Amino acid sequence: MLLFFVFFQGNLNLARVFWVNKDLLAWNVDAQDGSFFLHASQHAQLQLTGRGIEGADTIIQLEVDTHDLPAEVLERLPHISGYHALRLPRDADCKKLIKCQLAVGASNAYGAPIDASGVQLPGVLDDVLRYDGPLGVTFSETECTFSIWAPTAQNVRLFLYTEPSGGEPEAVIQLDEKHNVWTASGPKDWVGKYYLYEVTVFHPSTLQVEICLANDPYSRGLSANGERSLVIDLSDHNPENWDRLSSEKPMLHCFNDMAIYELHIRDFSARDQTVPENLRGTFLAFSEMESAGVRHLRSLAEAGLTHVHLLPSFDFGSVNEVKEKWKTLDYDRLEGLPPDSEEQQEAVVAIQNEDGFNWGYDPVNWGVPDGSYSTDPNGPRRTFEFRSMVQSINRLGLRVVLDVVYNHLHGNGPSDHLSVLDKVVPGYYLRRNKDGVIENSTCMNNTASEFYMVDRLIVDDLLMWATQYKVDGFRFDLMGHIMKRTMMRAKTALQSLTEEKDGVDGSKIYLYGEGWDFGEVYGNGRGVNATQLNLPGSQIGSFNDRMRDSAIGGSPFGDPLEQGIFTGLSLQPNSLPQGDEENMAKNLARGKDRIILGLAGNLRDYVFVDFEGREVKGCEVLTHDGKPVAYAASPTEIINYVSAHDNETLFDIIMMKVAESVSLEDRCRVNHLASSIVALSQAIPFFHAGEDMLRSKSLDRDSYNSGDWFNRLDFSYETNNWGVGLPPKSKNGEKWLIMRKLLGNESLRPSKDHILAAVANFQDLLKIRFSSPLFRLKTVNAIQARLQFHNTGPAAIPGIIVMSIHDGDEGEPGLLQIDSNFRIIVVVINARPDEGILKVGLLRGFKLELHPVQAASQDELVKASSCDDGTFAIPKRTTAVFVEKRCC
């Protein structure tokens, strides 16, 4: 017996066995000369003793299968490659077994137990018990039908309530299970009532049969804080003329014409005095047509902006939806404190989990608008008000992108109020590692889109937002943690929507997201995932971090002082040692190549002359870790940006990185310079709200929970929110020494004139972009044929990028004419701290003059830019655009 205790490795708290289809289980153990048994207990009585697993109702011997796991299994579960197959007998009743506590025990040739493990079920659920019929609440003229997919449940009951919280249910209805789904029906007058499901199910986290009260995974309405699901007929809660909205939407000819502005709903109006107090921070603030924020959006739309990207606005867990319980700051006191004080962040942090602010990347119920942005979190108001917001933004001339977070969920387990899916089908929706532990590489409770019903739920949810809320696009948080198959299925389903049948033109719905590759999915570890390098040809966009890092410097995970082209690398170094002059010059030249590729849409096949004078394709230029810089097959597969809600604002990161001697005026010019490469690139431009107003968060690098104080947007342009105290210590404390010096320097505080100049310059960039189709070429061939870079190779003047875009002439051979106004456009970007003068021989003979928009600019340095027969003189830190006009 001593040997048994030494070598027995059993642990039922771990689930190292995978039930992969109706016939096979897989386990990474030595299958030679041993016996394997599946143990099942309906009442979760399994336990380990000195004799192995005891307490089973049913014990089934498994046959060792000498073949490798089938290819279709490894396609779905590539991380268990090399596991041994264990075959079930043909008469095993898998539909009954999966409702039990399960464990597999292994014995040696002498019958002594050597190992035991719990079982992961997603594979067999997908193989045998997936479901394609109606889910959620559906309606006929007389009935409501409730349907929930819960194949592992031993029982499901419906609790029906009159009130949004408290009290006993007015009715308890037993659901029937058939065709892999539990259902019940009731009268149509149940609309407006609330409900929960009582799910009796074995839960692997507790090894017990639990009785869970859960919201409907297909909820379309909720009471405050998701206490209960709401029986809601979405067709009953439309703003006036809602059914005509599709035909009223602003024109979008193709995705190349997009320009996106990323905005947080609460930031937009929380401190806007021109919005009624009860509407600040809500969906309805967007309907206040004369508010400062709405006027700002209208001016951006008139300049050429096409889409507003709203940070998560579905039900999330981090803000109490009962506003009366929110704690607030004493703004008058905080505004009187020094700009580099610690007191502001202390006050913010003290209430940060009890105020009304959070970014919302902690989803609970994907299919319902969040109640904290509604005037009433109970009942149907949140539905009506979200629709009113979409309608109002559309009427401003802007389409709406919804930021969706399908890669993780807030809660898990059988008792957490913020757990939903893990109560209904425990161990299925959340991705687990080889031991059965929930993966958390995305910060919390990763979801598993590789499984059929998770994939289905995501696609169903997207279709609901598109048809019921008329959302125009979707941005996917940590899209690389979602399978490419799911993304492609979503794109196909959405773009097949038609106005005639669905009230929506799906061909205008665009998908993009964060294509980062890390965690358990890295290198296609769970299947082909939706990462940058896997998406070429998909027509799904991904963020281009290569341009951002080269322009601004470093990465979000590097030294905050590391410089890029626009922040002074080699040209005006700061105090951080960044190599000797030769190395800095080489890094400057490499960064310029990456920006060139970004300007060309980051296309893998675009050919240009690199800094060494070689003619190379974009995919042949490599990042520091050996990956291709350029990877897209189409310009609409790239989202170019230099700032987003993550990390410091553009203004703040510039303030950190530039040399101490750089004046405030020049720092503001760097902000504009960085925005210009995004606005004038061939990819889809993306801007962080306030980037156009020198927005600051007082140097906060991660303001997701930093309250209205650090996240303030001021559409009166009186302040950019710089110098409102040291940012929260937990995320920024190690940099406080650097920050104090900056925040305490009053000469670095922008005035209203600085902010207004930035607003005007930014809108000029949008006007220039939309003044010519040459900035929005649609194909790789068109970009290769028309787009040319000058001042390249080893003899190039450092820090200056010259880009020409050529049009053809009607009736002449060669390029087709697509621009009726300009024959050629030349963009010169001078990142140097001094004037740049250069001759471009290939541009001699063109009659170039400053673009009409810039000729009328209030920026004197832009207006001072000149071109004389191929010789350009561009003031410091300036982007100048020249055109040759066609004759009238």
Automatic annotation (TrEMBL):
Entry keyword set: Signal
InterPro entries: GH, Glyco_hydro_13_N, Glyco_hydro_b, Ig-like_fold, Ig_E-set, Pullul_strch, Pullul_strch_C, Pullulanase_N2
Entry GO MF terms: pullulanase activity
TM ranges: none
Pullulanase N2 domain sequence ranges: 15-127
UniProt GO BP: carbohydrate metabolic process
Pfam families to which the protein is assigned, alphabetical: CBM_48, Pullul_strch_C, Pullulanase_N2
All residue ranges annotated as the Glycoside hydrolase family 13 N-terminal domain in the record: 134-218
Keyword Transcription regulation: no
First and last residue of the signal peptide: 1-17
Domain of life: Eukaryota
Alpha-1,6-glucosidases pullulanase-type C-terminal domain ranges (all copies): 717-884
Annotated family: Belongs to the glycosyl hydrolase 13 family.
PANTHER family linked: GLYCOGEN DEBRANCHING ENZYME
Protein known as: Glycosyl hydrolase family 13 catalytic domain-containing protein
Organism: Selaginella moellendorffii (Spikemoss)
